[in-house]
Amino acid sequence: MKVNNRLFEIVYILMQKRKVTAKELAERFEVSTRTIYRDIETISCANIPVYMTKGKEGGIGLLDGYVFNKAILSNEEQDQILFALSSLDKMNVQDEKDILDKMSLFFNKDVNDWIRIDFSSWGKDNKQKERFQLIKSAILNRQLIEISYYNSKSQKSQRIVEPLQIWFKDKSWYLMSYCRVKNDYRVFKITRIRKVKLLEEKFERRLPKENHREIKIETITLQLEIDKTMAYRVYDEFEDEEITLNQNGNFIINVEYPKNDWVYGYILSYGKYIKVISPVHIKDIMKKKLEEMLKNYL
Known about the structure:
The chain has helices at 3-17, 22-29, 33-45, 75-90, 96-107, 128-141, 231-237, 261-268, 280-295; strands at 19-20, 50-53, 59-62, 143-150, 156-169, 172-179, 184-189, 193-202, 219-226, 243-245, 251-258, 274-278. The protein has 298 residues and is of the alpha+beta class.
């Protein structure tokens, strides 16, 4: 154990137990009692009110009421740390629960249970959480993973990747990684990853240059008219500045979306309650798709 980590742990133990013997600490950290005494002297020099008493009831302790030095962090900064740790805890991130408990004790603050994140779909407990945890573990341990992946054209591929970061963008989770198959950086939508296998091989973490770190997708600006009966979806899926009310009560939507097959499926999901106003070529594409769909029912 590194010395700094041991000192941190000693202070944490003292805040929990208030008094402990040098022998107990020496056994816990597998060092000599002389080393523990030197650690206590170092802690004392850091202006932490630690004391030692002799005798049958003696030991090492902290003055009553001691809280982690608030001069180091403002109240707002303390809250931000606890909020961040709380969000990791809600994502079922391993080890963060212990850190959250420790920091809460150090700051003498109750944790504000302000967020809940659930990766499972409504109505079923799928394997999304498990895949997310495997990816997270691989990132932290710099461990290669093998994934089965479906792209937007339904093409399946096997990839061996160096997982680097998890992104949340436009209502979706993505894995940014270096692909050993393509020998380049690639972004994978996590919902399209079907299998994740941890490999034994480790890798040296290397992030791409800043100008390569965004998800680059060609987009198109659409103007749509959506029936007023779809208000529940409109206010779920669009921002106020994208919505205009028409004289007939319907919604006029001006929105920028990815220029791929996904956008056509999205428009079709509204059924008869949506109409493409512009651009004209998208209207033509939708007409053709509807004609092709109609053939399935002739």
